[in-house]
Amino acid sequence: MSDSVHSELSLNPAPTIEVWTFGQEGHRVLVADNVLNNPETLRAAAIEAAFAAPPSTSKYPGLMASLPDGYLSLLQHVLRQPLVDIFGMRPNLKLQAYGFMGLATIARDQMTPAQAAPHTDTHRLDSFASVHYFSLIPSGGTAFYRHKATGFELITPTRNDKFRHVRQQEVAAGLDPREAYEEIVYVEPHFNRLILYRAGQLHSARLDTYEGLSIDPAHGRLTANLFFNTES
Q1: How far apart are CA 61 and CA 105, in angstroms?
Q2: How far is it, in rounded angstroms, from Cα 122 to Cα 128?
Q3: What is the pLDDT of residues 140-174, one digit of tens each?
């Protein structure tokens, strides 16, 4: 990103912010609209980025590119207080972050079983994730789930072993991922909307069809994805 574009990147001082409480366990997701003053500038920079296949260790159903300059530091700074106030993160916790621009290109019927199933980004405590939507045509919002057999909505270190064991049994039995989980809340993907949630929350992009998916970032499902205090 050029210096002029970098200097233009700024936050809206008065975004619309809601905190949704959902599920039987009463977890939260922050939903913020009109986050950036100039989302078109960041979108234009992202469209010019070099998208490529994700690392072999990633299950992301599409392509990835580097974040535009300044975005990570800007969001890392502004999201620290909501992490404390809404999610109970320790105020003095060192906040480490990384992320990528995402371009989803694979619909559910072409995904691997691991891609199609709701997932977590980590089961570590004090770990969080955000998705910032930059598609002009809404496509593929984010859904959160409950695992039916265990009742878990958030996977924590104490729950992880049981969850993995039950899931292995379900996979071995050939249970369709869509039958193993119950959707409990869905967030629509409005342009310049950002959501923030615990990284251990069971979630998935709702990519049921190819509508809105493209290998062209100018026309596809373009998002900025951040991860806080998770392993890169």
Answers
A1: 6
A2: 9
A3: 999 999 999 999 999 999 999 999 999 999 999 99
